[in-house]
């Protein structure tokens, strides 16, 4: 019964719906407005492909007459850099230094500094390009600056006269010679001779080595053993080269005045380092003498002696000056080179002719300057060679001879060389030197001043 009622209801609903659709379609219709029709017919266009970025951009023009406000870019935030960069830190270095002891070699000292064998060989080669390592002496010092790993950074060899040879390690090995610029000071002192000239200088605090220089200058004029009775007064003035208040070289005599037996002997050395000294007695020029080797030790005099090599007694025809290998040798008087070469036991020799009857001979030389030739004229004090040990010699020294008419004479007593030297100097020049030396010595030894006061030249 219930199913039959549902079927009747569905049939009635479909009959009513069909009737409504019939009346709607059959009723008259009004046309739609144009705008509504156009809108209903609009179909959206297909999207266009985007333009490439390099297409020219056209700024749109403003339609308003008022001035558009200016656009200002905001200032960039700046960060100030620190005034100083970050500190640079070098690897830590190790400093090692000490003096060379007697009997030591450079390799032994560098080995003690902890350097490896290849580094030691390289350092020796570099130092040897600027300094003859055979001249190393006790007292020379070595300074080694090494990296923490033991590799050398800098090696310095300090030798005589304050000179340093430095080897620096880097991309390339560099070697340089550093020479100090010394201050030259003048000193003066007074000594009373009681027993010997050497002892008198030592007691007065004056370099005792000056006794050798005075013996060279006055040996042929004054007999220091026989003519001195004691109480003689010797006044000296000398020059020293100093760096930082310390003496870096052997001092050089400038003036000597010896009052002996009523006679005043005076010697003036020039400032040019030529060693050409002038000797006066009582204010009158006696002779001029240039030392062949400055500051050397007179190791053997003229006369008979026991030969140091052969052991027999024979005549020593000159005087010997002991000095270091390579020390400069200078002509003692003006003349002309008459011979350069070797002569048996003399070794390498230079001979100079001083007129027709006088000749000087310089033997055992290690070298002769390039360009020095036979027939060349030289002046007193000119460099003619260097001290050596060629020929029959027990060590480096200069054998110096003076021959007159071919016969050896005592170099410290012969006066003929003075004649050749005096002709080259005017009396007014030598007198001016003497007066200037006297005046300076007087100021140095004035009782109101310190005896060892210094004065810059």
TrEMBL record:
<keyword id="KW-0732">Signal</keyword>
<protein>
    <submittedName>
        <fullName>Peptidase family M23</fullName>
    </submittedName>
</protein>
<keyword id="KW-0862">Zinc</keyword>
<keyword id="KW-0479">Metal-binding</keyword>
<dbReference type="GO" id="GO:0046872">
    <property type="term" value="F:metal ion binding"/>
</dbReference>
<keyword id="KW-0378">Hydrolase</keyword>
<dbReference type="GO" id="GO:0004222">
    <property type="term" value="F:metalloendopeptidase activity"/>
</dbReference>
<dbReference type="InterPro" id="IPR011055">
    <property type="entry name" value="Dup_hybrid_motif"/>
</dbReference>
<feature type="domain" description="M23ase beta-sheet core">
    <location>
        <begin position="314"/>
        <end position="411"/>
    </location>
</feature>
<dbReference type="InterPro" id="IPR050570">
    <property type="entry name" value="Cell_wall_metabolism_enzyme"/>
</dbReference>
<dbReference type="Pfam" id="PF01551">
    <property type="entry name" value="Peptidase_M23"/>
</dbReference>
<feature type="signal peptide">
    <location>
        <begin position="1"/>
        <end position="19"/>
    </location>
</feature>
<dbReference type="GO" id="GO:0006508">
    <property type="term" value="P:proteolysis"/>
</dbReference>
<dbReference type="InterPro" id="IPR016047">
    <property type="entry name" value="M23ase_b-sheet_dom"/>
</dbReference>
<keyword id="KW-0645">Protease</keyword>
<keyword id="KW-0482">Metalloprotease</keyword>
